[in-house]
Amino acid sequence: MRFTKKILSNGLRLITIPMPSFESATVMVMVGAGSRYETKKNNGISHFLEHMAFKGTEKRPNALAISSLIDGMGGEFNAFTGKETTGYYIKAAKNNVELCLDVLSDMLQHSKLEQAEIDKEKGVILEEINLYEDTPMRKIGDIYEQLLYGDTPLGWDIAGEKDVIRAITRADFVDYMGSLYSSDNMTVVVAGGIDEGEVEKLVEQYFGKMKQFATPKAKLITENQNKPAVLIKQKKTEQIHIAMGIRTVAIDDDKKYPLEVLSSILGGGMSSRLFSEIREKRGLAYYVRSSSDHYKDAGSLVTMAGIDPKRVVDAVSVLVEQYALVKDGKLNITDEELVKAKEFIKGHFVLDLEDSRSVAGYYAHQELLEEEQLNPDEVLAKIDAISKEQIEAVGQEFFRNETLNLALIGDFSDRQKLEDIVKLN
Questions:
Q1: Chain centroid, CA 62 distance in Å
Q2: Contact indicator for 245, 300 with CB cutoff of 8 Å
Q3: 28 near 87, Cβ under 8 Å?
Q4: Is 50 a catalytic residue?
Q5: What angle, 0 to 180 degrees and rounded to 10, lies between the N-to-C axes of helices 335-352 and 376-384?
Q6: What is the CATH number of domain 4-207?
Q7: Among candidates 137, 130, 126, 139, which has minimal Cα distance to 165?
């Protein structure tokens, strides 16, 4: 897979990825703006703005005008908000790339942001927050990051707080966009069956006049944990959901590659160590999975599981035992296990990249968050090169009591019992 990068005179970055066999194309605009750039007074505005972008522009006066246009070309459109980025995209037949660029540039430069629409959408956002609260399998990740990063923007929920959402006004959106939506703080990525030269001309036409201005930097996280930590969110549920993990590295650290393979060995699929120990051998949980996640200045390897409420202590004990093996360098990874873990990562990665939307997202995230832009084959080569020794080294470096955290959602109140066993002795 080949990509070309061009920087417009206003600092906007354009990345094109031609995929000649594709009849479709994805146009994605990603902005270096997410919930970690918010304050207590506007927490949730990044995500709220993502909703409002589709509510009408001067040229297309309402949500129906925009959705009808995209439906009329058989396209799909959506947006997503993270803690460090916000993305907007349209995927359609390759001959509709210009219309996709027209619509997205219009949304980002000329959104009406009418107060009446804002007030209506508040109800939608509040119900989305309720949905997350009622879906502990999704919410547990938020609770875990709250434990890791505390009362900082990186520890706050992306969806925001209800009282803050109710108070947001049009002026808040204008101020927020005027702070972060600079042309040099975004990238346009076009992937699929495209003509690169034509795309460059169109992006210049539709985005070349966007304003460039200075944007604030996110406040860096200071991690000073010195003992295991436990956070319980008490809630009446039929299943207990837990997230246990350790602090690791930021996104530009090459140790993320052996950490990813270690995560795969521990909880990547139904034949992984933790799935086998917790579900198959003991029947303690329905789902068990691990992931290695990274921000610009922090990272974590975490295992999540849905557990029988009567056997929470048993399940956490097994998890602690397996983490202790990593700490002590006693995983005893076999050659077969190493190959399987790598192929699990590579296979999922390759399958994702069969979709132009995923390809666009992959390059956009790299451009905004990482120092180095790698083609997929280069990432696959880095995964292939990881050795058992590297995996054992990162395990012993990061799996320590000083980095250990456990978050829990459910009807469980014996905090002391958990604190007694959450130790990598």
A1: 29
A2: yes
A3: yes
A4: yes
A5: 170
A6: 3.30.830.10
A7: 126
Catalytic residue among 38, 50, 260, 277: 50
Q: How far apart are CA 13 and CA 5, in angstroms?
A: 7
State the number of CA atoms in the 13 A half-sphere of 246 facing the CB.
25
- What tens digit of pLDDT does each residue of 201-235 get? 999 999 999 999 999 999 999 999 999 999 999 99
Q: Say which CATH architecture domain 229-421 belongs to.
A: 2-Layer Sandwich (3.30)
pLDDT tens for 14-47 read 999 999 999 999 999 999 999 999 999 999 999 9
258/254 Cα distance (integer angstroms): 8
Extents of the domains making up the chain: 4-207, 229-421
The DSSP code sequence of 190-203 is EEES--HHHHHHHH
Identify the bridge partners of residue 76 per DSSP, sorted by sequence position.
91
- Is the full-model pTM beyond 0.85? yes
CB-CB contact of 286 with 394 (8 Å) = no
Tokens matching residue 273? 């160590």
Q: What is the CA radius of gyration of the chain?
A: 23
- Residues 21/82, Cβ–Cβ less than 8 Å: no
Residue at token pair 């009418």: 114
SS3 228: coil
